[in-house]
Amino acid sequence: MTHPLVAPLRGGLIVSCQAYPGEPMRHPETMAQVAAAVVDGGAVAVRAQGLADVQLVAGRVQVPVIGIWKDGDAGVFITPTLRHSRAVLAAGADILALDGTERERPDGLTLAETVRRVREESDAPIMADCDTVASAVAAAEAGADLIGTTLAGYTDARPKTDGPDLDLLAEVVAALPGVAVVAEGRIHTPAQARAAAEAGAFAVVVGTAITHPSTITGWFDRALRSS
C-alpha cells in the first residue's frame, strides 16, 4: 500500500533545492525562497539538504519536503547514519532520504537495520538513493517507500552516463513492479524528464537544471565559446 504522502507524487516533478558550500546561494533562506518558487511552478515535492534548510523549507511550502543531510563528500555521505536520519526527521522533513547503496555505512548498521530503527520511531516515508538494480531491490526489501536512481554513476558500480541512466531506471522498474521508483540524476532537459516518465518512473527529480544558476550559466557559456 502506497504511503499517503507518497501517492500524490505520482507522475509529478520533484525539485532538489541545494547549493554547495562556498557558493553565493548557499544559505537556508535562499534555498527556502527557491523552494517556494519551484512549488509555484508546479513541483509536487522539494528535496532539501541540511538541517537548517529542511527546517526553513518545511515552513515555507505546502508540499512534502524530502530531507537529506550530506556529511562529507565520499563514500556513504547522504544521510549516512541513524543519527543523521533522526536529525533530518526532527528538523521537519516529511520524507527521509538516505543512501540506499550496499556500501558499508559509517555507523556499522545495514540499510535494513537503519530503516527498521527509523520505523520504530516514525511513520515518515523513506526514500533510498540507489546505484544498481541489486541495491534498489535490497532497499525495497528493507522497506523503503521510494527507490531513487540518485546515485547511478556516482559510485563504482556503474559508469556515469551522459544524462539520466534510463537503462538502469527501466531495469529497476521491471524488477520492482508496484514500487515507487523515482528517476533522479543528470536530468537536464524537459525531454529527458519526459523520457524518464516514459521509462516507468513514478516521479522525476530535477535539481541542477532548475536550481543551480552557476552550472546552467556554464552550459550556455561553453556553447557560445565553442562556436
UniProtKB/TrEMBL annotation:
Keywords from the UniProt entry: Carbohydrate metabolism, Isomerase
Pfam family membership, one: NanE
Gene3D superfamilies in the cross-refs: Aldolase class I
Pathway the protein contributes to: Amino-sugar metabolism; N-acetylneuraminate degradation; D-fructose 6-phosphate from N-acetylneuraminate: step 3/5
Catalytic reaction list: an N-acyl-D-glucosamine 6-phosphate = an N-acyl-D-mannosamine 6-phosphate
EC number: 5.1.3.9
Main enzyme class: isomerase
Keyword Isomerase attached: yes
Membrane among keywords: no
CDD domains given in the database record: NanE
Domain of life per record: Bacteria
HAMAP family assigned: ManNAc6P_epimer (MF_01235)
Annotated function: Converts N-acetylmannosamine-6-phosphate (ManNAc-6-P) to N-acetylglucosamine-6-phosphate (GlcNAc-6-P).
Family listed: Belongs to the NanE family.
Record's protein name: Putative N-acetylmannosamine-6-phosphate 2-epimerase
Organism annotation: Occultella gossypii
Gene: nanE
